[in-house]
Amino acid sequence: MAENLQEQLYQRLREGLLAGQFKPGERLKIRDLAAAWGTSPMPVRAALQRLVAEGALEGEPQRSVRVPPMTRERFTQIFQVRMAVEGLAVEAAAARLSAAELETLQGCMRRMDIAIEGRDVQGYLNDNSLFHMTLYRACANPILLRTIETLWLQVGPFFNRLFTEADLSLRLNDFHEDAFKALQAGDGKAARAAIEQDLSYFGQFLLNLLELDNIQARRNG
């Protein structure tokens, strides 16, 4: 029973990181999480320790845990690997997607449009995560999928920054729609190209934000 609870809490934390529910540098307090979820601290601590071991969280003195801060160097390294593996997963998934999975993707896009209009950051990020992970999980390559999920656990908390520019939000769903049309047609290469455009466009935007953060930090320092 305790192992099942720990697994549930681990998956809950994992999904939260994938969907950007926690921000870079945010400290996760065991007692606060335990109180919010109505459980004892022990399974929460065990779930957090698993994520620390995976590199999604980092331990601090006095047994506290936080989401790692994002640096330009770290983001660049993650981005380079994401470009190599996510397009590959999409191309492999194109011929394997079921009608139900395509319906899930379409529902995600519809809700993301609504979230963009309403400036609902978390609503958008939740469905953005579901869209990508539904697509990647259809690739039928567990090693590839695990690599992608590990990368997303590290970069997901930084996705909140996409909503800091009003004009950018107008393009947040464009590449998803291009990928979906290609997937409907069974064109894996076109779907891969659309997802890689998505990664490249928004990846560069986030890299620019990190550079601005560095400039501001130097001025304040």
TrEMBL record:
Tell me which residues make up the HTH gntR-type domain: 3-70
Identify the Pfam families for this entry: FCD (PF07729), GntR (PF00392)
Q: Which domain of life is it from?
A: Bacteria
Keyword vocabulary terms for this entry = DNA-binding, Transcription, Transcription regulation
What are the TM regions of this chain, as residue ranges? none
- The answer to whether keyword Iron-sulfur applies is no
- The reply on keyword DNA-binding is yes
Q: Which Gene3D superfamilies match?
A: GntR ligand-binding domain-like (1.20.120.530), Winged helix-like DNA-binding domain superfamily/Winged helix DNA-binding domain (1.10.10.10)
Q: Which PROSITE patterns match?
A: HTH_GNTR (PS50949)
Recorded protein name is GntR family transcriptional regulator
